[in-house]
Design goal:
Strand content: over 45%
Number of helices: 0
CATH superfamily of the domain at 2-72: Exo-inulinase, domain 1
Distance between the termini: 25 Å
Order of helices and strands: EEEEEEE
CATH topology of the domain at 2-72: Jelly Rolls
CATH class of the domain at 2-72: Mainly Beta
Radius of gyration: 13 Å
Length: 108
């Protein structure tokens, strides 16, 4: 998650092995809104690399280094915290959490 202001206002990108998709949401005033979701093979019981790049209104979501979502959204602006997020009914492990300030070029 990023641009986290509080428990009711933030962005989330998610890779879902139960639904085989990558999705992008924002939560504003406690209400979660889907921006976009894309079908993607997310194998169960395997490690995956989920990466989000964002700058101003531009957002890119990658799974295992492949770009799945590229869009613009301005619902939650300005600085905020970053972190990890999981659904309450999921068993999820996180490793090597990294954040930085570069917004790189996408290789096609």
């Amino acid at each position: 998650m990023w641009r986290w202001k509080d428990g009711d206002n933030y962005y989330v990108a998610r890779a879902n092995a139960l639904e085989d998709n990558v999705s992008l949401y924002y939560t504003q005033q406690g209400r979660r809104i889907t921006i976009k979701y894309v079908n993607a093979a997310v194998a169960k019981n395997n490690w995956h690399k989920l990466r989000v790049e964002f700058q101003d209104v531009q957002i890119r979501v990658f799974l295992n280094d492949k770009l799945y979502i590229q869009t613009e959204d301005a619902h939650i602006a300005g600085a905020g915290s970053v972190g990890v997020w999981t659904k309450a009914d999921s068993v999820t492990a996180f490793d090597d959490f990294i954040f930085g300030s570069s917004f790189g070029q996408v290789k096609k």
